[in-house]
């Protein structure tokens, strides 16, 4: 999911540092996971850890404290050091799912190129072929943002292909029923 581009928090970023701007965008992206429209029955959700007092407190923490010693999540690691295993405190990645998905992408790199570069999204002009090929030529497996974008493109491509197959089946069934028994 992407962070909203017109959120009120973005208005004040003109005066912020790049690190503060990045943190606000990350918070907005997290907030976008609580899209009420996506909840069954129109249920409302209130992400407590993204409530205004907590967000304001987090934004008051200087970025250099958050990455003390050159380590991402340094403050969180220090805060929970006595509650989690030492290998968790020392690790430099988010955990197994990141590596798992990177391994899945790497193992299927040829299929990903085939499905995307010869797919419906390009055929219908939704995706720029040159830009996609450029993105796939770089180190996209190591770039989390690029990988997230590729997941979305793969899902959209597969959805379009399945939609087209369903449409063809429906038209075939309609033609058969129109000719009668």
Which stretches are poorly predicted, pLDDT < 50 over at least 5 residues? Answer: none
The total of helices stands at 11
- Tell me the span between the first and last alpha carbons: 49 Å
Give the H and E element order.
HHHHHHHHHHH
Number of strands: 0
- The shape, in one word, is elongated
- The whole-number mean of residue pLDDT values reads 78
- Major β-sheet profile: none
Helix content: 55-70%
Radius of gyration: 22 Å
Secondary-structure-derived class: mainly alpha
In what range is the share of β-strand residues?
Answer: under 5%
Short description:
This protein is mainly α and 181 residues long.
Question: What characteristics describe this protein?
Answer:
mainly alpha, single chain, about 180 residues, 11 helices
């Amino acid at each position: 999911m992407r962070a909203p581009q017109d959120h009120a928090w973005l208005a004040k970023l003109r005066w912020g540092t790049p690190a503060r701007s990045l943190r606000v965008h990350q918070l907005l992206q997290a907030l976008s996971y609580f899209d009420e429209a996506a909840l069954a029955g129109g249920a409302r959700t209130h992400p407590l850890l993204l409530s205004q007092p907590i967000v304001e407190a987090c934004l008051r923490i200087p970025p250099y404290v958050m990455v003390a010693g050159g380590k991402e999540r340094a403050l969180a690691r220090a805060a929970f050091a006595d509650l989690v295993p030492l290998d968790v405190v020392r690790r430099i990645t988010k955990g197994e799912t990141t590596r798992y998905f990177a391994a899945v992408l790497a193992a299927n790199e040829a299929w990903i190129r085939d499905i995307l570069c010869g797919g419906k999204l390009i055929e219908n002009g939704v995706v720029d072929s040159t830009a996609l090929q450029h993105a796939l030529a770089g180190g996209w497996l190591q770039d989390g943002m690029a990988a997230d974008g590729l997941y979305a493109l793969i899902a959209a491509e597969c959805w379009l292909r399945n939609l087209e197959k369903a449409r063809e089946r429906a038209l075939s069934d309609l033609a058969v029923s129109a000719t009668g028994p």
